[in-house]
Design brief:
The protein is about 65% helix and about 0% strand. By secondary structure, the protein is mainly α. The longest helix has about 35 residues, at about 90-120.
Amino acid sequence: MDSLLCRLGRGFPGGVGPNPVRCFTDRRRGYRKAWRAAPAPGNPHPTCGGSRVASESTSISTGQDVVDYLVAQHESIRKLFIETLDAADADTRRAAFTRLRTMLAVHETAEEMMVHPRVRRKIDGADAVVDARLAEEHDSKVALSELEKLDIDSAEFSKALIHLQAAVLEHAEKEETEEFPLLAEHLDAEELQRMAVSVQVAERIAPTHPHPGVESAAANFAVGPFASLLDRARDALRGAA
């Protein structure tokens, strides 16, 4: 547990440091309108209600900008962290955490398959930006995997979740301020819309649980569909139990 908290606490002196939700919100006011337009995976609106967050949606939107779509999902993730932390009882927290875990897993996988590789290929000198985001995503996957092993009603779970929240929101902010502007600058509107469709397709085949070590596009294409099949079968069995 100490190693997990230490790993996630990088960049947050004295623990979590400044309120991660407030900092994240204050620095992304320019995206405030975007989250209302883009659906979360398997949902008509990014509130991620119910257990359908990773289920296959009936249609894929073809008119969205990939940056708006991903920023909308960041907002959904922020709300799910709050919902999980504020849950009144263990069952409510478990349901909220399941939605959060699924959202994080499919969102990061889609970025690793479609977004980061495109930035690396399209934009000269972007390797350092992409490598930093992939390292952050690896750390989050490790942390999320360890969170799944903890008693959801324990103090250890709450403490680890708060640290994960800080790391994930910091990661999202860096994507929005360092990586996404590169896409907006170097891709035209049609390319950005096509990327949004590609991301949504990738989310349909993405695993619903974290798989640390599978961060490259090649690894996700090779391992992702099989891992996704196992994850979704496991989710279905748990739901039927």
